[in-house]
Amino acid sequence: MLAHTLTINAPSPEVKLNWPVAERYKTELWVKRDDLLHPIISGNKWRKLKYALLDAQQRKVKHIISFGGGYSNHLHALGYCCHQLDIKFTALVRGNYTCNPTPMLRDLSSWQVDIQYLSKVEFKQRTQPEFIQQLQQRYSNALIIPEGGTQQQALQGVGEIVSELHQTYDYIVAPVASGGTLAGLIASTPNTSQVLGVAVLKGEGYLEGLVQNLLPKPYKNWHIEHTWHGGGYAKTPSALTQFCRQFSAETAISVEPVYSGKLFYALAHLLQQGFFATGSKILALHTGGLQGSRTQQACE
Ligand SMILES: *Cc1c(COP(=O)(O)O)cnc(C)c1O
Q1: pTM metric for this prediction
Q2: Which residues have C-beta atoms less than 6 Å from ligand 1?
Q3: Taking each helix axis from N to C terminus, what angle separates 180-188 and 154-163, rounded to the nearest 10 degrees?
Q4: pLDDT digits over 103-130, tens only?
Q5: 163 CA to middle of ligand 1, Å?
Q6: Is the pLDDT at 255 greater than 80, yes or no?
Q7: Theoretical Cys-Cys bridge with 214: which of 3, 162, 183, 199, CB 3.0 to 4.6 Å?
Q8: Could you tell me if 40 and 65 are in contact, meaning their C-beta atoms sit under 8 angstroms apart?
Q9: Secondary structure of the chain as H, E, C letters
Q10: What is the reported pLDDT for 300?
Q11: How remote is the CA of residue 247 from the centroid of ligand 1, in Å?
């Protein structure tokens, strides 16, 4: 019903990638094209938000509040969904972009989103119980959704990625930032497959903790690679941007350097290193996110 209102194209395509790199190392690389789920709503953000939004709709929630940075795919996806569903949305944004809104923030404005800028210090408190409590007191009827849409409830929607698959894989590989997507994949993948996360930020130990905290029980068939974050979140060394251009040219699949670019960049290196045994069947999850790489206009 909700997916119908928003015209989500699920199940998303599951396609074999004709990429010389995968062929050279005698593996089969498939891609789950969640980037094609919707022209605006970023792939994995839909998966993570679906059940929170269904619940909000059923409970007739009139106001949603969430957090994110100035390029956030999560705020963008949620802003659009709330606009379409006629729910007021307040976006609490890290930093002040009043004089130079990003393309993402311009979209939010066009969807009548209430944008409030938080200082970096205020924004840091966004996961603290006292801060959330105060916010909830101030907006007593609002539903507060955590940054990235990452919460326990997100696992069910992400699990649908796995239930849509037409075949089994030796590896399912996805980018990791707040861990919700990886946790959802782990919780729904049979233990005969390995779930492999590619860290898009510096967070060895920290990211594993985030994922573990979201999981209902311990699992053994997963780990996170920490070598290909390119220096940190949204850091884009020239080797990475060059790789993204080449990958898009070779495969006709668009990637951006913050998430999907780092995913395939890591895969290229892992293949080269012989990480995957000959004949391995690998599924890469294309999480979408192309809106985030639009460049900012100069300050007016
Ligand atoms: C948010 C995002 C991710 C990271 O997902 P997490 O669940 O936060 O780990 C990956 N890819 C894209 C395109 C995203 O927008």
Answers
A1: 0.96
A2: 42, 44-45, 73-74, 148, 150, 175-182, 259, 287-289
A3: 50
A4: 999 999 999 999 999 999 999 999 999 9
A5: 19
A6: yes
A7: 183
A8: no
A9: CHHHHCCCCCCCCEEECCCHHHHHCCCEEEEEEHHHCCCCCCHHHHHHHHHHHHHHHHCCCCEEEEEECCCCHHHHHHHHHHHHHCCEEEEEEECCCCCCCCHHHHHHHHCCCEEEEECHHHHHHHHCHHHHHHHHHHCCCCEECCHHHCCCCHHHHHHHHHHCCCCCCCEEEEEECCCHHHHHHHHHCCCCCEEEEEECCCCCCHHHHHHHHHCCCCCCCEEEECCCCCCCCCCCCHHHHHHHHHHHHHHCCCCCCCCHHHHHHHHHHHHHCCCCCCCCEEEEEECCCHHHHCCCCCCC
A10: 42
A11: 20
Tokens 């930093």: give the residue.
95
Cβ neighbors of 58 (< 8 A, separation 6 or more) are none
> Bridge partners of 194?
171
Confidence of residue 296 (pLDDT cuts 50, 70, 90): low
Query: What does the pLDDT read at residue 1?
Result: 75
Which atom of ligand 1 is least distant from the CA of 183?
7
